[in-house]
Amino acid sequence: MPRRYWLMKSEPHVYSIDDLERDGRAEWEGVRNYQARNFMRDDMKVGDGVLFYHSNAKPPGVAGVARVCREAYADHTAFDPDSDYHDPKSRRDEPRWLMVDVEFVEKFSSLVALDTLRATPGIEDMMVLRRGIRLSVQPVTRKQFDRVVALGRRG
DNA sequence: GCCAACGTTGGC
DNA sequence: GCCAACGTTGGC
To answer: Is the CB of A127 under 7 A from strand B?
Structure first.
């Protein structure tokens, strides 16, 4: 089974590639969308490659690479009434939301901006380029992954 | 800060 | 199980 590739969004003012570099690894907390959760639950494996995308940023774009280092388990922030991600419908005996852990791999020498992604031939099918798709966890192909990494290192 | 496009919720 | 209302996402 070949490893898979993903794009995961984070708002850099909440958690950035620099934070991940400092921490080494992180819990990917706060995913509250069923489709995104299902990707994590059903398809994400240790070793999968992750494009770390900065959303709600100026400019938005892929900032670096991470790797899945723990497969899906209960997102405990859902149980915490003080958390922004609290969801009373998720119970410890029946967790509704899951997270994975990711580890830092590299920060790009230059951010691959959304505009650059749009202008790059061969990756037109990336979900992040499709209008109206807001999924915070998206599959990408190996070709898309490799091309974005090449752009990021080129900087 | 705006707002279009979505996803979820809840009344019926 | 429909669908209007509401909340969220995320680029701009």
So the answer is: no
The count of other CB atoms within 10 Å of the CB of residue A140 is: 23
Nucleotide C9's nearest residue (CA vs C1') is A134
Rounded CA–C1' distance between A134 and B5, in angstroms: 9
- How far: A34 CA to C6 C1' (Å)? 18
Domains of chain A in start order, with CATH, are: 5-154 (3.10.590.10)
Q: From residue A80, give the alpha-carbon distance in Å to each of A4, A55, A93.
A: 31, 25, 14
pLDDT per residue of chain A (155 residues) written in tens, 0 to 9? 558 999 999 999 999 999 999 999 999 999 999 999 999 999 999 999 999 999 999 899 999 999 999 999 999 999 988 888 888 888 888 899 999 999 999 999 999 999 999 999 999 999 999 888 889 999 999 999 999 999 999 86
